[in-house]
Structure formats: C-alpha cells, structure tokens
## 1
Amino acid sequence: MMTFLIRRLLSAIPLVLGIATIVFFLLSLAPGDAASFLISPNITPEVLEQIRANMGLDQPVHIRYLRWMSAMLRGDFGVSLTRNQPVLDIIAEILPNTLVLSLCAFLLAFAGGILIGVFQAVRHNRPTDGILSVVGLFFYSMPSFWLALMLILVFSLGARNLWGWPIWFPASGMTSVDYPFMSPGEQLRDRAMHLFLPSLSLALVLAAGIARYVRGSMLEVIRQDYIRTARSKGLSEFKVIFKHALRNGLIPVATLFGLYLPFLFSGAVLIETVFAWPGMGRLVVDAIFQRDYPVVMAGTFVFAIMVVAGNLIADVLYAVVDPRIRYE
Amino acid sequence: MQWSIRVFDMSDLRIVGVSILFPGVRQVFRGRVAEGSLVLGVWLGFGWIVLARWDRVSRAALGPWDHKLALLTLGLGVLSVWMWSLLSERAAEERSQGARGVWALAWSAFRKSRVAVSAAITVTIVYLVALLTPFLAPFDPAAQGSLLTERLLGPSMLHPLGTDQFARDVLSRLLYGARISLTIGFVAVSISITIGTLLGAISGFAGGKVDAVLMRFVDMVISFPRLVLLIAIIAFFEPSIFLIVAVLGLTQWPQPTRLVRGEVLSLREREFIQAGHALGFSRSRLILRHLIPNALAPLIVAATLGIGDTIVLEAGLSFLGLGVQPPTPSWGTMVADGRDNLVGAWWISTFPGLAIVLVVLCFNLAGDGLRDALDPRLRS
Amino acid sequence: MSLLQVQDLRTYFSTDAGLARAVDGVSFEVNEGETLGIVGESGCGKTVAALSIMGLIPSPPGQVMPESSIRFRGNELVGLPEASMRKTRGNRIAMVFQEPMSSLNPVFTVGNQIQEALVLHRSLARRDARKIGVELLNEVGIPEPDQRFDEYPHQLSGGMRQRVMIAMALSCEPDLLIADEPTTALDVTIQAQILELLAELSARRGMAVLLITHDLGVIAEVCDRVLVMYAGQIVETGTVEEIFVRPSHPYAEGLLRSIPGTSAGGDRLHPIQGSVPSSVDWPSGCRFGDRCPHAWDRCTAESPRLTAPPGGSPGRLSRCLLTEEPRRRVRSAAFGAT
C-alpha cells in the first residue's frame, strides 16, 4: 500500500510541474505584458523600459522561466501587480473560501447522486426510474451559471421581494454585512445560509452525472452471483443492497472523484462570479482580466496541485475500497 | 439497396399530386402517424415561411450571405420533403425485407428508442431553424425599439419572449444566438475529433516513447480546469469567434485521442499477433477495414455528447464576456444581460438558458441513444 | 422421515416470447440425512426448482404459482411472507452455487462472509462467530484456517473458494443443503475432493443434500436416490442403482448411453438426437416424444403420468407409456447411431 502511494506521489510531481510550465509559456506568448497597463501619456518610453527591467520582463523567456520556477519552489510566488501584496498571502487568504464551497458542493453532489442512483437501480424498469433519468439528464444539460441565476430568482430575490416567503437565501458573498456583530451561533447560521445556494448550483449538475453513473454501476452489480449468495443467506434486502451491492457499486465512483474535480473548479469560477463569492476562481479570472501575471501563475499552479491531489485521493480511495487492487 | 428507376407509379398521378402538395398525409393514412404528421408539420412550416415572409424570401438571392444560405436551406428542405414523401414507402419495404448490414442494424436499434429518435429529430429541427433564421426572426436582433416605451416588456403577442433593456426582441436574439452556439459547437467538435483521431492513431501505432509522452500530455490537459485555461487564452489574446472555436476545439482532443488509441491498441493485440510478419501490406488494409468501423461508433457518440458540452462551455465564456462580442447575440451573453433585471424582467435570462438546456438535453439524449444502439451490436 | 415435501411445483416466467413454464408440475420428497440427486440437461428446470425452494425466484418476471406446495418440516413455504422466509434461508436450508469465483463478494474477507449468517441467525458476537468460522474452515479441509479467515476471495484457488462456500452454507447447521452444480466449474481432481467432502459432511452432520447436476458421474459418486428431469418435469425417479443399471425412461437410457466409454459398442458416440424444446412452447403429449426411438402415435396424443414400473423400490416412478405397454419397446434401439 505504501509503495503504491509513493509511486503515485512521485508520478504526480512531474505532472504538476508540467502543467505549470505549460501555463507559463502560454502566458509568455500573450501580447502585452504587465507593464503595458502602465502606458499613459505621462510615462515616457524610457521609464517604461526601466519598469520593465525592474520587473525582470526584459529577460529572455528561458531565463525568466528558470527564475520563476526556482522562486516558486522556494515558496516565493511574487507580488501581486494590482494589489501590491505577496501573492502567497492573497492565496492563503482566499483558498479556504474555495475549498469550503467545493467541499460542500462535492459532499452534496455525491450524497445526493449516490442515493438517487441506488434508488433508480433498485426501482429499475419502473416509472420512477424513467422519470428520474429524464430529470437527471435535464439537470445534467444545464449550464451551472444559469441554474444559479434561476435559483437566485426563486429562492432569494423572489422569495424575499415577490412572495414574502419565511425563508430566503442570500445571493451574494460569504457572510452578511453585520457578520462581525453576530453571536457564534448566528455566525454559523449566516455562513450556512450564504453557502447554500452556491453549493447547490454546483452540486445539482454534478449530482445528475453521478446518479447516472451509480445507477449503471449498481445495475451491473445487482446482477452478479454474489448478490444471489447474499440473499440465500437470508439477509434483508436492505443489507443486500447497502452492504453487499453498494460496496461493489461504488468502486468505479471513486474514479469519478478524480474526474469531476476539474469540472468542479471550472464550475466554481462561474458560480463565484454569480454569487460574488471571494474564491480562487474569481481571483484568477479577475487577475487574468487585469493582466496580473504573478497571481495568474500562482493561481493556476494551485489549481493544478488541487486537481492532482484530488486524483491522488481518488486513487487511494480506489485502493481502499477494492481489495483486489491492494493485494496485487 | 436498389433504387429502381420507376420509383413511383407514374400511372397514378393522383398519388404524386398528393405527395407533392400535402406530403405526409399519405403516410398518416397508412398508419405511420408520427412520421407523417412530422413531415406534414415541417411542410406547413416551409409553406408559412414562403407565404408570410415572402418579402424576405423573394429578395434573399441578392441579400447577405446568411439570407442566401437560408434560401438554399429552404429549397433543399422542400426537395427533401418531396423525396421522402414519394420514396419512403419503397424504403420501408426494402428495410423489412431484411437488408441487414451493420449500419442498418444499428439504425433499427436506434429507432427502437422513441426518446432518442425524438431527440435526434429535435436537433435536426433546431439546426433547420438556425439556418432559416433570417426568414423566421420577426425582428432584427440588433434593432433597438423605442427606449421609452418598449424596454423590458413582458411576453406578448408582438414579442413572444419579451424585450430586453435595450428594447430588442428577445425571440429574434434567441434565434440568431442559436446560430452562433450551434455553429461553434459543431465546428469545435469537428476540430477536436480530427485532431484526436490523428493523435490517437499516431500514439497507438508508434507506441513506446512517443505514446508515453503523449499520454502524459493528455493527463496534463485533462487535469486542468478547462474553463480557466480557456479564459486565460481568450482574455490574453482578445476574443473573436475564430479564437473561441479554435481554443474550444484544441482543448477537447484528449477524449477522442484516448478513444482512438484504445481502439488501435486492441486492434494490434488482435490482428497482428496472429498475423505475424508475413502480411506486410495487408496491415494497412486491416487498419482501414477494422479500425475505422470500430472506432467510428464511439467517436460519433463522443462527438454528439461533445457538442452539448461545447455549447454549455461557450455559453459560460459568453457569460463572462469572453465569447462573441456584442451586438452579435449569444445565449450566454443574453443570460448575462438579464442579470441586472432578474426579478423585474426574468424573461431575458430565463429563455436563453432554457434554450441551452433543451438543445443540450437533446444532444445528450441522442448521444445516449446512439451509444446504446451502436456499442453492443457492432462489437464484432 | 420426510424433511422436504414438494408437491406440484410450478414456476413460470413471463418473457417477451411468452409464458415460460420452467418448472411444470414437479413433486418429490427429501428424507432426513439422505442425498437426493436431480439430473438433467441445461434448461430442464432443475436450477429453477432449487431456487423456488429457497424462495429466490426474481419476482417481476418469475413466479411460483400458488397451487404449488413446498413443505419443510411440515411448514408451507409457498406464499410465506418474505420476512419469515428469510429466517429459513441460510439457517435451516442453505445453498451452494456453481461458480465459486463470482458467488463470493470480492470486497469482503472470506471470514466476514462466513460470519454473516451466524451473526444474523444466531445473534452471535463477532468473536464467537469468528471462532466458529475458523472451525468451519477447518472442517471443510482448508489448511491454516485462522490465516485464511482474513483473506479475500481472489487470494484463494477455485477449489478452496468452493470449500468456503460450503463452510458458509454450513455455518448455521442447516437440515438441508442444496448444491447447484457445485463441481462443474472446478478441475476434475478437485471435483472428486469436493464431492467426498459433501458426502462426509452429510454423514457426519445427518444433513440432507439436494444435489443438482448434469453430470451422471457426480450422481454415481454421492447420491442415494436420483430424480431425472426433462422439459420442466420429472421423468424418472429411483435409487442410484436402479437408474444406472435398469433405467426405465428412454431419456435416462439415452443419458447413460451417451456417456463415452460406457456402451458396449466401442468407439462410437451415442448422443441423443434432437434438442430440448423451448419452455415457452412445450409440446402436447410426451415432451420427449420427438427424440424417443420407441415413440408411437399414443405418445404424441397423451401426456404420460408418473407411474411405478414393476419391481422397483417404493418411490420408483417413470413418466413413460412403456410402463403400460412394454412390448412397444424397440429392441436394439441405439439413439442416433447408424
């Protein structure tokens, strides 16, 4: 098991470095650089050149690459050009926000998706299966940002302004304006309320995909001989499905974990934009628009690490769940 | 399948007449109600266009290129309807006599799923509508009405889907936006399938170092959140339709690559080990005869599902302002436009989103149906 | 003493092609401690009959018809609510299946799966269940049982997995063990070992065994009595000797003759001509009629009933009109030869 882990870890490192390298060279191809933002009638070309030299932008590409790479490996991600803060600090502050949102969405998606998938498999060939399949496909085909807007329309703005429902959810930010003045209990509730719609928007689309997958996997598993053996021992149907079948049916789902992670982060970008959620997605997108290269580089690097880490976790899960992999 | 020269009974001119004037009616009376009424509906649609939009149709041949294209589509559509109406009986007969080629089998399997067939038909109709948009759209999508009286109007007879904050007709913008989304989807996926097939074939046949390096590369591209990469590239290089299509196409190739490579590898296992080294030239024949049919089926499925994904992705980019630039309407931009008036004028954001959902849903349903029909049966 | 009494068992399946009458009026008895064999080709309904006894027929397509009766120690099992049936399954009646690799859950240890029935039916604590489990593994002849207990199915060989299946079935000391083709998927050498094991266990524990197989050699090894099934019905019953030495029904004759090397003719193979009819469309009249060398017009007109041929043990039955009209028997009839 340990050798398996170490092997995977070792192969992950070049992956991350490779991704970062690609992004670096991609960015270096972009027309205009950070300094070009400063072009204005007040700045003479000589000053511009000086600024460029200061930023190290006048060096040839490979030198810049090596300098950047060595700095990164030392943990120095540079300074943000727009905020004048060390990038590392910015990321350290913002990363937890995205992690919270992603984790919440992930949990919701997997819990919901697995339950629905199992339900569909057990009720195979009955009307509920068909209906849920269509509904699931409906959500699967939805752009997450539009779903977010519709949810806001119904559960936030509509609920509050149009129909006066007792519960409505906030549509922007992580916390309310008066958050610092709340009691700890109220603070927790406030965070949860703010978390609900964003994670739901992310989770629903993901859950639809997971449910389809789980359904297919469970249908395969339920047909297997060992399920018949389990029944022949007199186990209740509940035990047969949720102990014997599910453990086998979930094995391929572990691979989904790694597969869906990039989607999760892509989706997070749009959702964070809609909900004004201060997360990595928004940070990187804003930095791209503002040509804040250090932030873009560091941001994409962190994304890459997170995805690769997610894949690693997925592989570990896979080995944990399927003993045949472990004892090869 | 033989097409006989006497494709219909010339002796019965009445049948010919009915088939041309009222296509689909004959089929309805013969029991094929669904197909017949569908074709009849399409025919009536064409008829409406010619009658109600005669002013545009008559001037289309001299108009802008999209009007010419719409006229061409109309013409081809009418011709196809006539052909179908006259020949479908013969085709049905021959099919029931058991023309059982591999593709015929897949086709009959596909037909069994009503859902998949409806989805495929819907997709075709959507593409038809997109091509005929210059005739169909009631208003010019960029035309702004009176900013005093015609802003933010709800759905009505004049504006079935309402107007937006610039007093533009939402329905017309929706129709024109369809063209953008559908075209981008189609072209981008074509690019990615082409690249993917080439790379996959190279990787599979070359093996060794080349294969290993390429697969690492695939891993890297897949690991990356695609949207972030797209945003980065488009933002840095100024958005334009060509860039968007190119970038979408160039980031989707991993999947077809893996698919084709898998096929190549399994082909190598099967044929070459048994054939030994004696069969020099017949290798290429084996490739063509086995690789392409076996790989084509999952590729088609992947392409269909891929178009759906691409449409959603393009909408996301437009939503962020990185898609086609105004005044060209795109569904994603329309959704973004409606954000400021979400409660007051919900129709601006809702309808484009619904359009996306329905079109992508149909692609997904059709893709699923194709997968079910093609996979088990073509595994020779 | 009669342990299991099956009367007029009918199990039908609704399929796209029609109603499949897989088991069509089967009656037999299993006595305490005896080993009863059911032999027949695939498709004759023997596995379906076994699953019907266990109540494992999947219910949307299949159904045990209500006129059937399955009495275990006097209690009627047909129509029993599922909760009660579960108390019997794995407990009083246990089953061993054909494919040991796919019949064991790959993600749980062997020991875990053996313990399950014990924990369920005997409410034992894990520790006690483990002790019994290890003993069971020992009893079925698995070396180093304590170590094997914590291993996974894929770490064991085919023969060992089947032993594990048997241990699992024995865990709650059932009165009846149903074994459905227990040796078919195993190597020939292992087959003999498993059969020996079954015989031993039956003798030692006084457990009845219902052995289902298509292999006459297996029957000869371990069974006391035999049922021969064809096309959803029983066509002959008797002791092992009677069936093998003096078969009465032409089908049984044909089966014996088709074993390579048994007939006096030397190298020729004597298969039974024709093939089993479809269960959706059983022929009227004798179902074996179109393959039988002795058949005459009465055979297509009438469905023969089970009658006792002369000079047999009690319970010796044959479903053949030849019992009534023995002179119709065609001498020197060799199935499918010449």
Note: Confidence is low (pLDDT under 50) at residues 1-6 of chain B.
## 2
Amino acid sequence: MVLDNEAVQALLDPTHRKHRTVLAHLEVRNQRQRGRRANLRVLVPVAVRVEAGWDRTAATAADINRISSAVDVDLRRAGADRAVQLRQTADVSVVDATVGQAAESATHPAVILTSDVDDMTRLAATLEGDVRIIGI
Amino acid sequence: MDDAVAELFEAVQRLHDEDATVVTSVRLSSSLREAVKAAVRAGMDANPNDAMLNAVRDRLEAFAQRLALDLHYERYPDARPSLAEVAVAAAQLDDSPLAHELDLLRRAADEVVRLKPDADADDVLVYAAALRSGQAAHGTTSPAAATS
C-alpha cells in the first residue's frame, strides 16, 4: 500500500476529513497482519514525505510514525531513472512519479492510496505489474 | 505511555534500517526447527534465519501498530473508523465488488457484531457475501434465514 501526499496529510492531521478513511485502510492492514492472513506493507516514497512535511524526527510526527508503520522508499539511481520515465510517459508530477515507481517496485498486487484518482489511474496504466488505485 | 511501550515504538521504527546484527540464542522445539527448514525448502523464505526474523518482525510491527492505533483513538475518539468503514477499506484493498455496496456492508457490519462481538472487517465481508448470496438464491434477508 503506497501512500500519496494527501493520504499522508490525512494521517498527519486528526481533524482532516479523510483521516478516518486512511485509518480504515491501516486497520485492515493491522487486522490481517495480526491474524496472519496477509502481510501488507505500507510504503511512503521519500518525496511524498518531503511534499507533505513529514519529518520523522519531529515531535508532531510521533503519531503518524507509529500508526502508519510506513516504510520509506528511497530513491536511488535506478529508481530515479524509472521515475523520470514515468513522469514523461504519464505526464504526472515529480512526486507522483515516485509514487508510481514505489508501487511498481513493491510486492504485487500493490495499491496506491490517493485523492488524485484521475492522474494516478493514468499513471497506473503505464506501470508494470498489478497496481490498482484506491481513492480516498 | 509506559517506558516499555515507548521503547518498543522507537525500536520498531528502526526495524527497516540497515543495522548491525547480533548473535543471540533462542530455544526452539525440534519440531519448529524442522518445520522452518522444510518451509524454507518449500520456498517460504531464503533461509531459516530470514524465516525467523520475518516472523518476529511481522509480529512486532503488528503489535506495535495495534498499540499505537489504540492510543491514537484514546486521544481522538472520533478518529476511530467504524467496522463498516474498515470493511469498505478491506473490500477496496481486495478489489471486491462489495466495495461499491455500502448499504450492504453497513448492514452486514451491524448484524455480524451481534453474532460475533469481536468481528473484524473480513468477517463483515464474508457475512455481506452471504447476505447477497442468500438474497439471490432464496430471496431471504439474512444468512441465518438462508440456511434455515
């Protein structure tokens, strides 16, 4: 499960109107992992963290660090090259391209949790593997 | 939050960092050791060490996340999603057609907790599928009625 910018924004702010919606997805992850029914990893591209202002060392990030269990997806050389290709092919933002790259490099089937369904659907169509979009 | 929980949160967040390793001893039953070795041969993980580490890591992450979510809901009670909302998320993650049947999922969530107070999202999905199947096959309104 890859988080985009608004999914992170929603998690950061308990008053955000989509906070519960994103938490519902994290609940599924937790219920299934505790029941050993599935191992669904939560991923956040580092560019998304930058855009959303998620500094893991900040005191204000303590909650999201803990409740999300999200693992950072770093952008190394090959990943950066792939993000460039995706940006050019799907005409998406730099950050969205890294979301696509993270989803593509994740275990499949993968999902992208996003508020930008149109752009992400266009992006997903260019990705290799089984990547779906879930609108929040 | 007590010290052990705080220490757990701090340690769990470092689980995916590249880290120095330590050798430690764990007492295993011989049957568990044999089962792990057989599972590795069957393709579960690359080696017995990875198999053990992955199992422990997954349990730790799930346990810590559960604690964190419950603490979050203590501070922000309105943030807790309902069982029906979690079921919708589960259906979306599964790409299930039930994801589009919000009324059915709400009803299933209402009914299933009467039968199983600790029901989770997957219980709701199974119940909702049974509701729908019962309606289609018998024109009945609940799984219990469909089987009577």
Note: The longest strand of chain A covers residues 110-114.
